[in-house]
Please model this.
Amino acid sequence: MKKETLIILLLFLSILNLAIISAQNSDVPGMDEAPLVNEIVEGQEKYQQFTDENRSEYLQKEWRALLEKNTIGKVFFKIFDILSPVFKVILGVDVISWAFFFALAIWLTLFLFLIHPAKAIFNSTPLAVIVAFIIASICGTSGLIRKATDMLSFVLQNKWIAVLALVITIILGLVIERLGMKLKKKIQKQKEESEKEKTARSQKIIQTHGKVSQKELESYERGAGI
Model:
């Protein structure tokens, strides 16, 4: 348990470090003087002039063009197209965006963390899946996932930092999922110990009743002269 906590702390510090690096890169002296940087800045300014709706449409066209190059990509995009309203409600972000992948990773982390303890509590995998899905989705619809994604918005300004942060987020999710499994085992162990105590208590009660009944029978036999 301590190892997983340490790993989570290290991964969190890694993401925080990415934020610092990203902020430092934007404030490097002389960067504005470089021609290439000026072109990039101009491009970013033009892109930022888009409304949120135009950005979404632009990204959607780019992704569609990329995915429609193969059959699997077409199917993948159609599925996302159908589920887009659902993702928007639960995750609070547009499907075609970097923020979506972060939000989805956070939702999956919550789901995987919750499903293991739920299995131990309800002793039913289908019920555990439903409970974990509902709780994780409530966290999404309440705006918690959107807020967490907004906190990570600093990494979305740089593609490579965004990819690295996404990888760290996935690893963090796997570590948290493992913590969920350990929590499940702990709950199961407590339930088993509780059942053993109940069984031992029941056996003791039965033995006590048996001894009392035997004494009463012996007393009756002596009184009856048997």
Q: What stands out?
A: Confidence is low (pLDDT under 50) at residues 6-10, 18-37. The two ends are 66 Å apart (CA to CA). Residues 2-49+97-192 form one domain. The chain has eight helices and no strands.
